[in-house]
Amino acid sequence: MNFYKTSYDVIVIGAGHAGCEAALAATRMGCSTLLLTIDMDKIAAMPCSPSIGGMAKGQLVKEIDALGGQMAKVSDWSAIQYRTLNTRKGPAVHSTRTQNDKSMYSRQMKTILENTPSLDLKQAMVESLTMENNQITGIIDQTGFEYSAKAVVIATGTFLRGTVHIGSTRIEAGRAGEFASIGLAKDLARIGLDMGRMKTGTPPRLHADSIDFSQFNIHGADTIAKPFSFSTKKITNPMLPSFMGETNPGTHEIIRKNLKFSALYGGQIKGKSARYCPSFEDKIVKFPDRESHHVILEYEGIDAKEIYASGLGNSMPLEIQYQIVRSVKGLDQAQIMRPAYAIEYDYVNPLELTPALEVKKMKGLFLAGQINGTSGYEEAGAQGLWAGVNAACKIQKRKAFVLDRSQAYMGVMVDDLVTRGTREPYRMFTSRAEYRLLLREDNADLRLARMGYDYGLINKEHLDFCREIQRQAKDEIDRVKRTVIKPSEAVNTFLADHKTNPITNGVKLEQLLKRTELTYGSLAQISPPTDPLEARSQTQVEIEIKYEGYIQRQLNEIKKFKDLEKIKIPDNFDYANAHGLSNELREKLTHIRPLSLGQASRTDGITPAAISVLMVAISAGQKNKEA
Q: Are strands 51-53 and 95-100 parallel, antiparallel or unpaired?
């Protein structure tokens, strides 16, 4: 490795969850890559919750894993608790969540980066970008040292003009105790990007020895840990509990009496807050009738004494934070090791980006993570992989890596961002994915393996494994659909034991599997497969048969969706000449520059009539061109 190298294919700015995945993806595709971070000891840090995954977020992590990313693997390495969410609902919304030892997570990711060939990891504060004729050419760090590159990915998280708020105290910082990035923020504004301010925050960390855990309930976790990554074979860490308690009217009264001292409600904070992850002050103001709110205590590491107090995030002065914390039953003697705080930071309106996450006004410049207005490690990691792959594609003159809404949750997220933009922190939800029954956690690698292999992100061995799972499942579904189970004493005894109706005539095995009381595994007792199946294949068989009608309905919807996506809008299409569009829509569409009629149909404010106008205008333009 040449540590004095100054020219790279790709430079990634920021080594949070987005930056790490971007750098690794670009390197896997054969690019020489430089990853720059302000603090080498804070790589892939978990400044907020010490966890990975959750509702819809788990699907994103599985997709990162399916495309060769590291988040799921490192999560398994550092996990100290596993939970599968929504198990009482259908498989479309099952989501994995791990509680993690945050120090182990960071150390393991750093180890992976340091041992990746063609990837240099260096500590530096990027001060400005270098460019020529609207093409990125590299960066200049705070010391004036210059690195050149053919593509740059910016993944700065909350560091762009970051400001930490604790009561009336304001500190320029990207996270508590870390420098903010001021020069780079000014440089982005100089390019002419539409930028704004957002706000997030984190709760206090408490000393475990000062907490009376007997006053809290054990918060449920899986008794059998199921790995996050498709490649993880064994979980080795001890599993630790988490605890649930509640605030009370006294806690809420402390907030009400001291609201003027809150940075959020005292007027110091101007950035837009996340509606789906409100601070404690927000909860009290917006839900005044609630007498209590959950407080969840989570260990931040196996050997750590720090406890993450989820639910108590606020921007109050420290003395008031003590009053809030100690008003909760079981926390009356609690010691705050790190205070809660709010943080404001700059972001770029994602309408400035193409579906490849490339800045429209600057070729070769890609943005990923919170700089695009999102929240969450998982959303950041998925964008990082996406941007890293596309940076490599740009250099290698390959077709852009873009997944559509029917292929992946990350496709839904990126399409939402670049088509609709966001003025508040964007968070992924299962409800955002209209084809979620097909975009499940259990089939993420089966969906994405072919594309991952084509882009050099996964090896042939894993592609072959996924194909074998799909072959086994297809063959077994065919057998299940053909097989007829005839009535007999043994069969009806089996059905009675499983509390389902007996049969009097021959019944297709498929029909029995569609009964809610029966599973594929149980039916193997009366009709085993010809050859043993992988557990993964068995899962696919059961889901595809039980939900066959719903799956077929979504496949029909996807066909209509794809038909609109096939109608491409020319790069130079003049919306001003599309007679029948409102001025507002003309302005929006001109700014977004949708690539297809499908993308245009998802623009805010678009109507069926407007789609018809566009279809006619596109058709007329093609005819004129041919003439």
A: antiparallel
Instruction: Check residue 483 and report its DSSP letter.
Output: -
**Residue of 102, 101, 84 lying closest to 93 (CA atoms):** 84
Q: Whole-angstrom Cα distance, residue 191 to residue 316?
A: 36
Cβ neighbours, 10 Å, residue 72: 29
Please state, in angstroms and rounded to a whole number, the distance separating the CA atoms of residues 477 and 508. Answer: 12
* Residue 627 confidence class, pLDDT cut points 50, 70, 90: low
CATH 3.40.50.800 assigned to domain 7-161+169-195+350-454? The reply is: no
Give the architecture-level CATH label for domain 567-626. Orthogonal Bundle (1.10)
Contact 372, 5 (CB under 8 A): no
Show the tokens assigned to 180.
Answer: 């903010």
Measured CA to CA, the distance from residue 66 to residue 457 in angstroms comes to 9
Q: Which of 40, 189, 46 is nearest to 123 (CA)?
A: 40
Q: With b meaning 16 or more CB within 10 Å and e meaning fewer, what string describes 465-481? A: bbeebbebbebbbeebe
Phi, psi values for residue 310, rounded to 5° = -60, 135
On the question of pLDDT at 55 being above 70, the answer is yes
- Identify the weakest region by mean pLDDT among 208-212, 238-242, 288-292, 578-582: 578-582
